Amino acid sequence: MQQQISVITLGIADLNRSRRFYVNGFGWAPVFENDHIIFYQMNGFVLGTFLKTALESDMNRHGLLQPGAFSLAHNVTGKDEVEPLMDRLAEAGGAILRAADAPAHGGFRGYVADPDDHAWEIAWNPAWTIDERGLVTFGV
Amino acid sequence: MQQQISVITLGIADLNRSRRFYVNGFGWAPVFENDHIIFYQMNGFVLGTFLKTALESDMNRHGLLQPGAFSLAHNVTGKDEVEPLMDRLAEAGGAILRAADAPAHGGFRGYVADPDDHAWEIAWNPAWTIDERGLVTFGV
């Protein structure tokens, strides 16, 4: 079985509010959008932001909760990029959960919640490589 | 800003129970494991399964909830692969949320929850390409 995830879909309440965080905060460009979903082409997979009611209907499960027991990480290539990006995400509607500091395993990272309370870790991790396409390889 | 996600981290209660779902169900191989986290090298990023208490401590936020307002998708290359994989995931500790059927936008998909109630969509979507490395490209 291919070791592959095709889509990460986040349930959101307001497309424009979420779009502002991802487009103005991260600086990402949608590849598709309509009145209930926005897709972003990522590094080898797709990120979707989908109205939570529609996601619940699609997965046949209601009462999805926030904050969910997960986080997403965006790694940067230099320690000095972590805090400016966290600041920009906060200006675009995010909320700082943990100011950036150095974890025991090395590197430098902080956490920001998106407007729907989904957690993003912004990290500099020098042990992991990121190629020019954005493909990330685990390292220790 | 690189349109890139480096890690998806799922909060879990029991490493062995979760490992059985991902290793025996999906057939994936860990790239690293210790007594609180297991990492899987995916298609251009890393999947982590991390004890929820440790994830909460790392992100400086407690009370993470399940089921969270998100889903992950694993796409397969043929319609006839969807149901056998869902069955194998159920045998490995998953729970069927939605039996496979055809959504309005085309293709064929169902949903399975992992042992920690994180939702996985298993989908055949002929409009999206998946290359030999598992890199997925959005299409309509």
Topology of helices and strands:
The structure is a homodimer.
Chain A: E1 7-12, H1 15-25, E2 32-33, E3 37-41, E4 46-51, H2 52-59, E5 70-76, H3 82-91, E6 95-101, E7 108-113, E8 119-124, E9 129-130, E10 136-137
Parallel strand pairs in A: 1-4, 5-8
Antiparallel strand pairs in A: 2-3, 3-4, 6-7, 7-8, 9-10
Helix pairs in contact in A: 1-3
SSE class of chain A: alpha+beta
- Which descriptor suits the 3D outline of chain A? globular
Number of domains of chain A: 1
Please give the largest β-sheet of chain A.
4 strands, mixed
Q: What topology, given as strand order, has the largest sheet of chain A?
A: 1-4-3-2
Mean pLDDT of chain A: 97
The CATH homologous superfamily name of chain A equals 2,3-Dihydroxybiphenyl 1,2-Dioxygenase, domain 1
> What is the CATH fold-level name of chain A?
2,3-Dihydroxybiphenyl 1,2-Dioxygenase, domain 1
Number of helices of chain A: 3
CATH C-level label of chain A: Alpha Beta
Q: Low-confidence spans of chain A: pLDDT under 50, at least 5 residues?
A: none
